[in-house]
Amino acid sequence: MKIRRVYEQLLKQEKRTVLRLKCLSGATAFIVFSVFLMMFLGLDVVRKIAKGFSFEKGVCVVQESSFTGGNVSCACGMHTCCSKYPCLRVLVKMAAKSTEDVGTSQPALLHNTIYDLGSECTYGPPCQPNYSDNFASVLKYKNSKEKRENPESFQCYFNPNDPTEVILDKSAHETLAFHAMFWPCSAFITGLCILLKTYYMRKAHKKQDVVRPQDIELEETLHTSNNNICNYHLVKSYRQ
């Protein structure tokens, strides 16, 4: 009876140990994933979003728009698909306020969004497997800008620290900013909650994991007493 009791306790303790190890592994995976995700998003997405908020409103006039003659590679879809699109450069003259003369400014390369900065091309279309579709998308963008080649200016945004950085669309990217912060924080908090759950679970089961001799002796005493009582009633009923 004692051996059986010890075996049951050890088996229960082993199951709890395996469960704790699984919880620790899951918590570690969540925390490591959140750290890498936060580093990636912090270095790329969040940095560009923060930079976009510093751009100020200005006015631009298209000076020239032309194809460079080269193509830019792009990845299309979730599959291993590679395509190309023509490189379009749109040069504009920019002024900080509508009252200023844009003709006195130096030409700058216009980019479509904050994410296109650093590229030699103005516009990168949504990549399609077919090159003709990409060409049509870039050509449509080019034609829309050429319609603005008139004395009237249009709104654009520029970096006050570097006037050569000019973008057409300054979006706060609230959704991207939310996802960039929400998912890493959620993964980190989930991992932390699993760690705390594992800690308190171990603390609650710590006493139960220890096989105490007095508990075994008490169980043996109760078992013996129950057997004696049963035997007494059997003998008594037999004599009657």
TrEMBL record:
**A single Gene Ontology molecular function, please?**
calcium-activated potassium channel activity
One Pfam entry for this protein is: CaKB
Do you know which InterPro entries this protein is assigned to? K_chnl_Ca-activ_BK_bsu
TM segment ranges: 21-43, 176-196
UniProt main location, coarse:
membrane
Q: How is it placed in the membrane, per its record?
A: Multi-pass membrane protein
Keywords for the protein's UniProt record, in alphabetical order: Glycoprotein, Ion channel, Ion transport, Membrane, Transmembrane, Transmembrane helix, Transport
One of the record's GO cellular component terms:
voltage-gated potassium channel complex
What does the UniProt entry say about where the protein is found?
A: Membrane
Q: Which GO terms describe its biological process?
A: detection of calcium ion
Q: Which PANTHER family does the annotation name?
A: CALCIUM-ACTIVATED POTASSIUM CHANNEL BK ALPHA SUBUNIT DOMAIN-CONTAINING PROTEIN, CALCIUM-ACTIVATED POTASSIUM CHANNEL SUBUNIT BETA
Protein name as it appears in the record: Calcium-activated potassium channel subunit beta-4
- From which organism does this entry originate? Stylophora pistillata (Smooth cauliflower coral)
